Each structure stands twice: as structure tokens, then as C-alpha cells.
Amino acid sequence: MSSSAGISVYGFTPVLSSASTLLETDPPSAAPVVFPVAQTPIPSTPLAQRIDAYAKAHLPTPTYNHSLRVYHYGIAIKRYRFPTWAFSDETYFLACLLHDIGTTEENLNATKMSFEFYGGFLALDVLQHQGDSKNATAPKDQAESVAEAIIRHQDLCQKGKITAVGQLLQLATIFDNAGLYSDIVHPSTIEDVTKHFPRLQWSNCFARTIEKENKLKPWSHTSTLGEKDFSLMVLGNTLMAPYE
Fold first, then answer.
1. Residues 229, 234: Cα–Cα separation, whole Å
2. d(CA 115, CA 217)
3. What is the tens place of the pLDDT at every residue in 73-128?
4. Which residue has the higher pLDDT, 95 or 6?
5. Cα–chain-centroid distance for residue 229?
6. How far apart are CA 230 and CA 128, in angstroms?
7. What are phi and psi of 156, to 5 degrees?
8. Of 172, 181, 200, 235, which has the maximum CB count within 10 A?
9. Is 95 exposed, middle or buried (0-12, 13-18, 19+ CB in 10 A)?
10. For the segment 175-220, what is each residue's pLDDT rounded down to a tens digit?
11. Residue closest to 93 by CA, chosen among 199, 11, 213, 192
């Protein structure tokens, strides 16, 4: 694969970091349509299947379900608002499955690094070096794109650029975690996604993870979102409250 093709298919295309500015640019003329889970299937490649099995084995069920919701919401957002973004569903799927790998009890206590940064390093290793065949390992560019997106998925900047796959990961995670940008996903899509991947009191679960990391690592990147404000935002997620 050529370098320019890799930039596109693996999601390295630079886009605005500011989600609000990005969404205000060229606003759509119609409301979002329904994208049920059946219309946004997960990739069936050997690599996707291997990382799916890895995520199921290592993530608690609420976190695994969140990761799958982020995938399906993200694909719905991409089709509605960013249809020209050319990165593969597989690349985005890998980023979704691994974006919270650093939040497990084991991994939070395994390092003094912020969970997103450690998660990015774990993703690089899992994607490139733990496959049982050539087809089940990720190319270097793809693995680095996933790691970059994971490292920056809580980096909610208002200036500068981010990769397209990183921006979509941000949008879908903040949508599921805090209910922000509620107008970019159809309510029936939310209903169908949560039916397939129940929240299982996710708001309380994730708020506890935020508080745990801030207590363990007062220097963590999560603290830049507000040591109390971020967990309160998650707990105050009115959009997803009916599905908790």
C-alpha cells in the first residue's frame, strides 16, 4: 500500500480538533437517518476477530459494551456527517475495542501513566506482535493510527488538528459518555444500539473509573477535563439516562 493510500485508509487525514467547529462547518440539510446495528456490521477480518476476542477477554462487560456502542454510533456519525472520510471500518473498529484497555483494574495499577497513553502502547503491542498469523497482525501504519487515536481520545482541544479516525473516536465516546452532540445520531439508532449492547449502568461505572484514576494518578490527563467536572458530566448524561 502506498504512503498516500495508507494516510487515507488508516485515518491519518488531518481534520479540525474542535468538534463543535467541525460540526458547524457545512451543516447537513437533513436530520440524521436511522442506522440500526444490522446496517453497521462489525468487520469480519482475521485481525478484527482476534482483537474482538482479546477485548472480550480483557474488558469488563460494561466497558466492552461501551466499546461496541462507540463503534456503531461512530459509523452512524461518519455516514451522516463525514461520508468522505475514507478510513476503513476495520481501523475504526480496532480503535473502539482498545480505546479503554488502559482502564481495567490490572492496567490502571500496572503503570503511573495516564490510561489513554498506556492504552496506546498496549494497542501497538497487541496489534503488531500478538497475532498468530500474518493476516491477524496490523500493518505499522494502521497500528500507529489506532494508538494515536487512543492516546488522544480524551484530548478535547479547540485548536489544531487531529486524525480523522481520532476525531470520530472522540465524538462517539463523548456522545456515549456524556450525551454531547445529541443531534448527530437518530434516537432510534440509540435505542437499537443500546438494545444490542446494554449500558449496564455505564454512567456510574465510568464515573467511578474517572474518580479512581484521578485518585491513583493526580497528574493524569483525565484531570485536565476537570477533576470533579468530568465525572459529574458523565453522571449527568440525560440523553442516555433512559437506557441505563
1. 9
2. 10
3. 999 999 999 999 999 999 999 999 999 999 999 999 999 999 999 999 999 999 99
4. 95
5. 21
6. 33
7. -85, 70
8. 172
9. buried
10. 999 999 999 999 999 999 999 999 999 999 999 999 999 999 999 9
11. 11
Beta bridge partners of 15: 162
pLDDT for the residue 131? 55
DSSP codes of every residue in 92-120: HHHHHHHTTGGGSHHHHTS-SS-HHHHHH
54 pLDDT exceeds 80? Answer: yes
Taking the C-alpha atoms of residue 19 and residue 23, their distance in angstroms, rounded to an integer, is: 6
* pTM, to two decimals: 0.94
Gap between the Cα atoms of 89 and 40, Å rounded: 9
The rounded distance, in Å, linking the Cα atoms of 116 and 79 is: 26
| Measured distance CA(39)–CA(19) in Å, rounded | 25
Helix (H, G, I), strand (E, B) or coil at 5: helix
